[in-house]
Structures are given as C-alpha cells and as structure tokens.
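Entry for the shared binder. Reason: the reviewer on the internal report wants the predicted structure included alongside the sequence.
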Amino acid sequence: MSVMVKTKRSKIHGRGLFADQPIRKGTLIGHLETKPVEKDGAYVLWLSETEAVRVLNQFRFINHSSRPNVAYYDDLTVVALKDIKEGDELVHNYNS
C-alpha cells in the first residue's frame, strides 16, 4: 500500500486514487498487486491480447484520462509522468 495516495470519490468515475502529498515526476508510487484472470471485468488490466490480470490493491482505482499523470509499466509499477499536486487525482491513459 502506498502512503502517497488515498482513495476517495472521483468526479471522473465512482472512486479514484488521489495524491495525499506532492509527488514528483519519475517517482515510483507503487506496484500493482494482481492475479491472472481469463475474462474481462471490473479492475481487469489487459497486458496483451491474451493475458489479463485483476488489480487487487488500491491502484485499481486509477481512472482513465487522455491526459495521464501516471503510467503502468511492464513490471506492473506505477510511476508519475509529471509532478502531481497534493489532492490531484491519479489518472492513466488505458489506450496507450
């Protein structure tokens, strides 16, 4: 669990993940905890056309935006793409 973030109501969709302190560009925010799944559903992240995982920890609440401030990397880490202010929602572009 990352102490840099907290879950709360999101204007984008349901619940979201928000910076609980300023986060600098390039900061490793945490790691996705996952389990393999075979079907799509809530909190499922497709790693390829045939491989999917369900995100189990707080990072499942990162919502989509075409202007992301975090990214998921192949090693399932979450990293800040730019400086994030305290209170800002963490968002990832699921299309890229």
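Summary line for the report: Residues 31 and 78 are 6 Å apart (CA to CA).
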